[in-house]
Amino acid sequence: MNVDTMLSTNEVPPSTIQVMKRYLAVNAKHNPVLVSTILFSLLTSAVLSVMTQCLHAMIDDYGATGTIVNMQTAILLLSLALLIPSQYLQQFLGIKYGGLCDRTMRDKTFAIMSQIDMQTLDSQRMGDILSRANSDLGQINATLQNYYAVRLPQQIIGLAAFIVSLLISWQLTLFSLAIVPVIALLQMKISAPLTRFALQWQQAAGESLSIANNLMGGYEIAKAYNLGSNLRHRYDAAVDRAADSGMNANRATLLLSPLGRIMFFLPQIIICGFGVYLASIHHITSGGVMSVIILSVFIGNPIGDFSSVLTDFKTARGCASRVFELWDLPLEPTDGTERKPGGDAIIFDNVEFSYPDKPAVINGLSFSISRGEHIALVGGSGSGKSTAIKLLMALYRKNGGEISLFGNAVEAWSTDALREYISYVGQDTYLFAGSIWDNVAMGNRGASDENIQAAIDAALLNEMDVKREIGERGLRLSGGQRQRVAIARAMLKDAPLLLLDEPTSALDTQAEALVTEALRRLMQGRTTIIIAHRLSALRNIDRIVCMQDGRIAESGTHEQLMMLQGVYYRLYKSQEADL
Ligand SMILES: Nc1ncnc2c1ncn2[C@@H]1O[C@H](COP(=O)(O)OP(=O)(O)OP(=O)(O)O)[C@@H](O)[C@H]1O
Q: What's the mean pLDDT in 566-579?
């Protein structure tokens, strides 16, 4: 496998800017909602600026005239009325944008997962792909949703508040900015013990949980070795430690909460003190001091949040690199076009193929099948039968030679169109959650109820309650019933080429008889390749193609091959001996 196509975990993650750029590009169709969010944030900022200016003028006017009933008051009240809908819309649109992006990202990820090239998929761990598509994607979306709904508007409003505040008094504004880090540092120092106690509590709680897990997970062993009392002592000690740390944390919280409240107001008190000094030397009016204090809250919000924004973005960046790696996996080729079937059904001409980093599995394979012919592919285990079928379905691309289907090279077909002409039934059918009816209907989404019922009848499923839930992967059905659902689905699809990969190999004799009858009906009038292990069942097939080491060893009817006394004869005899 080419190293470039592997999902890795140790590559340098893309920068935050690259992540944002790609996120915005993927979600470009939602830009009008993003722009509206920004516009409403700007409106909120403008309204807040007008409000503080009015307050500024009101306080100063009151000092000069002794009245607060004037034009400023009216504008202030009007702005207040405008602030509520504007802030609501800004947040609503931010959340909506995040939600729309989440949907687009999930749709894109699912679409990519359904198109990943089979060869690439072989080299990946499914759990890893699913975790990228689920938890990593969820983490990015949660971070960015929160950013667009809360933090971006906060930053815009903070910037506007900063500009207005500078215009009122640059000295007081810069002073208020300078004390923010000092206060933040003080807060961190004061709350440090709280963090320590919380951590100790978490550790002790985790320990008690793991002891409880040990007891329940290894219940029989714990009983057999009388470990119950020992585990209980350890559990009690961990619970005591958790209780002590919890108590310490609560005591610290009680002591710290008045301190926290003081810390919240401390910046305002200090700014106010410096403001009074500036007013005393006529650098600012008392209305101005009031306005700067109010604005400092809006300036402080994004600054206070800065470190958590950075942490969130750091995590999201790591997750984004994992999701983008998934998005960048090679997909199935899309260079083919829709073709009309014509010519011979199937031609394999000197085909070569090897799985990545493995010796060749198909070695100059050549055979052809005419329309309507039924052939069986047989051969020893590992001789390449399933691989030949996968090449025909364009799940893998051959390394050499030609494969043509209904008169056109496999590569010339668009994969979707090619697979429209093929029905496949494998060894163990994967069914989707839902009913038998739902699973059969998947064979042809345009089929009428009568056609679905006819397929169910023909696959000998009519004795079953076809509308009942069959559970995850159809686990509430027997193996034979699952195979018959797959046959009904293939029947409804009504494709001209039928590929059957050992469809009865996992069944007992009774189930096999029903499935074989259903298969006989399905094969009627359709070109069929059946991979079969039980050679005794192949007497009525048109032709048997026997493979060895990835090429044809012999081909003919059962009688002809038995007369040859070659590979087929030996396989047949070895099966007879096993019975
Ligand atoms: N996805 C894969 N990646 C790597 N090697 C594979 C893969 N699938 C099959 N092979 C190898 O290719 C060879 C041919 O496998 P294939 O399944 O085509 O044989 P088969 O004739 O159908 O065997 P069986 O009768 O046992 O099902 C085997 O050696 C197998 O280990």
A: 83
